[in-house]
Amino acid sequence: MVAGLKRLEYRGYDSAGVAVLADGGLAMAKRAGKLVNLEKALGDRPLPAGTTALGHTRWATHGPPNDANAHPHLDDSGRVAVVHNGIIENFAALRTELAGRGHVLRSDTDTETVAHLLAEEFSSCADLGEAMRLVCRRLEGAFTLVAVHADAPGVVVGARRNSPLVVGVGEGEAFLASDVAAFIAHTRSAVELGQDQVVEVRRDAVAVTGFDGRPARGRAYHVDWDVSAAEKGGYDYFMLKEIAEQPKAVADTLLGRIDEAGSLVLDELRISASELCEVDKVVIVACGTAFHAGLIAKYAIEHWTRIPCEVELASEFRYRDPILGARTLTVAISQSGETMDTLMALRHAREQGSKVLAICNTNGSTIPRESDAVLYTHAGPEIAVASTKAFLTQLVACYLVALYLGQVRGTQWGDEVRAVIRDLAGIADAVERVLATMEPVRALARTLADKRTVLFLGRHVGHPVALEGALKLKELAYMHAEGFAAGELKHGPIALIEADVPVVVVVPSPAGRSLLHDKIVSNIQEIRARGARTIVIAEEGDEAVVPYADHLIRVPATPTLLQPLVAAVPLQVFACELATVRGNEVDQPRNLAKSVTVE
Ligand code: F6R
Fold first, then answer.
1. Is the CB of 596 within 6 Å of ligand 1?
2. Which residues catalyse the reaction (predicted)?
3. Model's pTM, two decimal places?
């Protein structure tokens, strides 16, 4: 159980707990803080052995992360145990109702209400599955629930609405988890539950129903990675491993997308060529790093297809009444496929008649399931909270979508598409070369550990790269960092420049758009004249930047539009090293969680 929780710890890590059905009752342990605290408690006072158990690692929403608020939660009699992800929005009314019937609530959580409600329903129907269905019909909000009852040994019941739950089907054993990583060491056969479904899992049987009790089926699939992919493999941090895996991730995401004639085939796309020809606007919705991938995609989509493209933070999207219709293609980018803001944005887009294409890294997750089409990135599991390899593969997928749109609409000739594909095929090697030259970047990062602020500048696609560099530094090193469009600097932010403030500048290729390049070289001179310490990322052979770079980071020459694939990598390494020297938890930065399944 603890081994499974370890693999889920990236999803939330402020407290953890387990409960075991044993000797006709329930035994439980829970602790605030990281899983190691729970492990220590279990080492000091082991729980009795049992074959039915549940556990949880928490990212607090209701109530601070202390022992009492850690999951599982029990009913008054201590015979029902529940774990929960998500938010039960009507929990205040439920708490008042339960208190009115004499229940004693021992935590501040919304989850505990479910334990009491389940106990009540079970006492009249003596069927844990039915009790769960009855309770779920009363709950509002988002939830994955898993429960056991000491009077129903041998069965574990799960339920889901707007939050993930997968079943692992082993031989004579079964698992329920929010992510296959939890059980991948035991089985690669998974069943993904649909929206508003309840599952009853027994040693050798899995039964699925809707909340209304009607029999239903989950989608069975085989997980195409194994346990080694979910382990650190000799690296100190998952983040380092995932940075190193980027060449493979990029190459894997390109695999099988080109036919013998050199045309792009996106079989999984499930939106017909004629529908794509009708598209008159592309809207990209995403959060955080995935949003930055979307910002870069806009340049490629508009350049290659001449279709207007908007990029919007998913959390803002539906609140501004966006203009969408049957000819709008909405692209939802999400590594986890579970980000609630992105899910809500895509639902809004579909309600307005837009087709939705998901770009996603997680098979069996909610966002692709609710989209009209999906293009999977093949980054493998990304476990470090800060996104790295998923970002690069999201970019590759975006370029593929842009090229495909250009191909089916005839705005790109076959040889133009093939030329870009060739460039993309060379990126894995280019990233490998970047990775091989990162020691000076790490050394530089170590000298900046005491800085208060780091600024990032870029133009064109370099601007989102600058935003991404700043985000990585904020979340990992807890330093103030901001990304700006280099040309915007003189409209205000240049006032931030003072002696020795580090400024990272992403310089576009001098070959592609020389005007762009010349402008940014001027911007570097402007900030250097005001005392900035310039850290310049420029392609090999770009000599114009040399006189103005206090530190020069070389990346292989790439076409301008594809440069983010190489330019982002030193920024990941830079942030990771700064986090390390500042003594931060690289894989699990404070206050964050990998899948943000609440709005
Ligand atoms: C930053 C980071 C986050 C995610 C964002 C979206 O390093 O990882 O900003 O990119 O939370 O997550 P997904 O892609 O899972 O929707």
1. yes
2. 594 (for fru-6p isomerization activity)
3. 0.86
